[in-house]
Amino acid sequence: MFGLGTQEIILICIVILVLFGAKKIPDLMSGLGKGIREFKKASKDIETEITSAPTEEKKQS
Fold first, then answer.
1. Which residue among 4, 53, 55, 60 is least packed, with the fewest CB closer than 10 Å?
2. Domain ranges in the chain?
């Protein structure tokens, strides 16, 4: 994953734990999950708009 070894990942996790504390991490992950979900929904909506646009033009003609 991104060229990171096990030791680097553990070190990053420890730094995050020290910086934010154990109580804030669930809130951060929840916010991250919501953001990813919204991004996926928006990209799916845009994809649907793009694929349905030629179909709507044919119906209007």
1. 60
2. 22-52
Q: State pLDDT tens for residues 19-60.
A: 888 888 888 889 999 999 999 999 999 999 888 877 656 666
Q: Is 35 exposed, middle or buried (0-12, 13-18, 19+ CB in 10 A)?
A: exposed
How many whole angstroms from its chain centre is CA 56? 31
Q: Whole-model pTM?
A: 0.56
Residue 22 backbone phi and psi in degrees, to 5: -70, -25
DSSP state of 3: T
Query: What is the DSSP-derived secondary structure letter of residue 54?
Result: H
Q: How far apart are CA 50 and CA 61, in angstroms?
A: 18
